[in-house]
Design the sequence.
């Protein structure tokens, strides 16, 4: 019997996998912002971990399907960009940072993830 995953990090990973494998460009583009909005109290680095873990799971399980839609490089690129933003937020003194801090940073400094629809 499979157990339902209820830990926020597990839910975040599942959410990222669903968005990345949706085949819908708009869902993939809005995924990082939606991730932060759904789990604003989670550590900012949890977003990085969720995107990296989901990308790795896609790479391990769906490599053939992912060749038609290059979600694997996209996932790793997004992880790197989120990591840079976490570093910037924490360098400004917001340590430890949470996802809501990233949303604030994106609104005030770097709106890249907010502009993607």
Sequence:
């Amino acid at each position: 019997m499979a157990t339902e995953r209820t830990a926020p990090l597990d839910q975040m990973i599942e959410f990222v996998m669903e968005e990345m494998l949706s085949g819908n460009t708009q869902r993939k583009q809005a995924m990082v912002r939606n991730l932060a909005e759904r789990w604003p109290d989670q550590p900012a680095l949890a977003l990085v971990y969720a995107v990296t873990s989901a990308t790795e799971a896609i790479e391990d399980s769906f490599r053939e399907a992912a060749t038609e839609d290059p979600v694997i490089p996209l996932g790793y690129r997004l992880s790197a960009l989120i990591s840079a933003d976490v570093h910037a937020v924490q360098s400004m003194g917001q340590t430890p940072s949470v996802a809501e801090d990233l949303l604030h940073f994106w609104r005030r400094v770097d709106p890249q993830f907010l502009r993607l629809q």
The radius of gyration is 14 Å. The chain has a mean pLDDT of 91.
